[in-house]
Amino acid sequence: MGSVIERGLLKMLFYPISNLIEPSALECEHIYSLFDLAKRFKIFFQKRESIPLLQGMGIVNLFFENSTRTRTSFEVAIRQLQGNVINFSLGTSSVQKGETLLDTAKNLLAMAPHAFILRHSASGSAKFLEKHISVPIINAGDGMHAHPTQALLDAFTIQEKIGSLEGKQVLIIGDVLHSRVARSNIIILKKLGAKITVCGPGSLLFSNAYFQSFNIHFTSQLEDVLPEADVIMVLRMQLERQNRLQVPSCIEYSHFWGMTREREKILKKNTIILHPGPVNRGIEVDPEVIDGPRSMVLEQVCNGIVIRMAVLGSICNPSGVTRWLEKKTE
Ligand code: CP
Question: Among 86, 134, 173, 174, which one is least packed by beta carbons within 10 Å?
């Protein structure tokens, strides 16, 4: 990890990536390169102007799990780069007749797409597919394991709102145990120099050996850590990944760990609040807080499009991106 100045210089260069399975595979220069690209793409997106970087390319949106934000924003991102979206509908697909993930992917690969975007409930599914499929795989969330584009869009949103992440206090609250968003965010935010505190009930905090070296502060006492936070990341209670509720009740969870209006009063003036969505209103966060001025949820959604444009452009057409950047700086 270089100094702040070195990182600032790296920001001006383009470092393409060949796929996106694990956030740990991204170096700082890749992350800043994606942020720089996303920032440039955002100007075009806000003007409703498309950029011809995926012309003639087909990208498969292969979602085996429900999604609103990720699936739709990838679709908008592909169209914004003038590519063709090949949508796969799980409910009407032959997966319902027993076809496997691999057979599904191989059959779609025979239709000559340029990349797959995969969401699946099995941790490791993106890595598994990468071994068998000859085109790039973009992980759009695999089980509890990783959600790299979410972490990139979260870090991009934070940087856009409060500047460099170096030394910033990021407090992650809630169901960390089941959260691919938390795992990926910890990896990306640490690479960018943030300090991480994780808070929640003991039953929902992980004791993953991998994170021992990350110097994370774990606590269950929310009031102790709220006043220090520059950024609060509220996680969704992931009931679909719990065999049974792992706290006595949602009311009790909200009482001790909910981001309530009362708790909002002890935050610093400029603390921002992120949530990956979908929100369980009244459980992990009060409606007034998530709809309030600190909330970045809709900025996160908008930034999700431009970050995914940057990821797609970087993976599917790096030489086109280089030429586009050269043209812009002429
Ligand atoms: N944040 C996120 O992954 O939301 P979706 O499940 O709606 O895609």
Answer: 134
CA 188 to chain CA centroid, nearest Å: 10
Of all atoms in ligand 1, which is nearest to the CA of residue 71? 8
- How many angstroms is it from 235 CA to the middle of ligand 1? 12
How far, in Å, from the CA of 143 to the mean position of ligand 1?
12
Task: Write the pLDDT tens digit of every residue in 269-316.
Answer: 999 999 999 999 999 999 999 999 999 999 999 999 999 999 999 999
Whether the CB-CB separation of 284 and 258 falls below 8 Å is answered with: yes
pLDDT in tens, 149-191: 999 999 999 999 999 999 999 999 998 988 999 999 999 999 9
For residue 316, CA distances in Å to 53, 212, 262 come to 9, 35, 47
pTM of the model: 0.93
The residue behind tokens 């968003």 is 181
Residue type at 175 in one-letter notation: D
- Could you give the C-alpha distances from 132 to 104, 107, 125, 230, 261, in angstroms and in order? 12, 12, 11, 42, 49
